[in-house]
Amino acid sequence: MPLAPLRFKPILKPKVWGGHLLAEMGKPAPPDESIGESWELADLPDSISEGRSRIDGGPCDGQLLQTVLAENGKALLGRANLSPEGGFPLLLKFLDANENLSVQVHPDEAYVAKHPEAHLKSEAWYILEAKPGSVIYAGVQPGVDAAQFKTAIEKGDLVDLLVSIPAVPGDCHYLPSGTCHALGEGVLVAEVQTPSDTTFRVWDWGRTDREIHVEAAMACIDFSGRKVTAPPPPAMTSADRITTRFVEVPFFTIDRLQSNGTTSMDMPTKDLPEAIMVLDGNGHLNFDNDNMSLERGDTVLLPADRPTCTIVPQQSLDLLHVTLGTG
Length: 327
Prior knowledge:
By secondary structure, this protein is mainly beta. The chain has 2 domains: about 5-220, Jelly Rolls; about 235-325, Jelly Rolls (Sandwich). The protein contains 5 helices and 20 strands. The chain has helices at about 65-70, 75, 110-115, 145-155, 215-220; strands at about 5, 10-20, 35-40, 90-95, 105, 125-130, 135-140, 160-165, 170-175, 180-185, 185-195, 200-205, 235-240, 240-250, 250-260, 265, 275-285, 290-295, 300, 310-325. The strands form 4 sheets. Strands 1, 13, 14, 15, 16, 17, 18, 19 and 20 form a 9-stranded antiparallel beta sheet that branches. A 6-stranded antiparallel beta sheet has the order 2-3-4-11-6-9, with no helix packed on it. A 3-stranded antiparallel beta sheet has the order 8-7-10, with no helix packed on it. The longest helix has 10 residues, at about 145-155.
């Protein structure tokens, strides 16, 4: 039986590095708290506090995504596979970095093979906003080895050994597992990632109230010096629509869809779940005899087996279109 598109209640995460921009994305963020993350779609294990999304509206209103997955797994997933922990294989967030995030790394395949409790976490950042001079850190400088890196951690002068990249709105950066990285202050991003919360902090900018995991991190960091970022991909223009393919890896594909008119966009199923994250503008998602409004900050999951879905922009609409892979 086809499943209607699903919208979820955002799960807000206070962070020491967070800010107040997520309220401008339509999130119910308290004005007196520094909110760093809004988890838009999540299905993590019970060991992660508030790590499961709850459906907002529609026939499944109030149910956990976990429940819908258990009862309608084939309709929801199609050809996609469950995550290694048995949940939905995607985690979507908005992040507001008012201050620098910790320098960190996620387990690579070799580490996971030896530590079954750890899980791969490959992610992509789409930059929505950035203050002048803001950067992201992605990868270790070529020629830097593990011994140099560890010494720099101990001395607290690690930053010069990281690859610094200007944070430019509209850019998207894919960070495979094993990439040492950090989101710099003054950057607002949409994050697409595999569903793992296994993070090893390497250095925390002088903050001393959070755990650091140097030994585990050193076992995961890629010191090959390979470039993580690639040149901006070419955009394809058709009528009043621009499509840009940012990421295509076994876990997911990310396209940016920009509409400068009101021409509708059909969303035919590929027998895989898809998600849309609205970056700007507004419109509607039409399906059966129903519709769902689309506004900045909205995230919607399109099940693999679903009614015919059509996106109808109102003047302009800018969104990320994420398709699950089978890897």
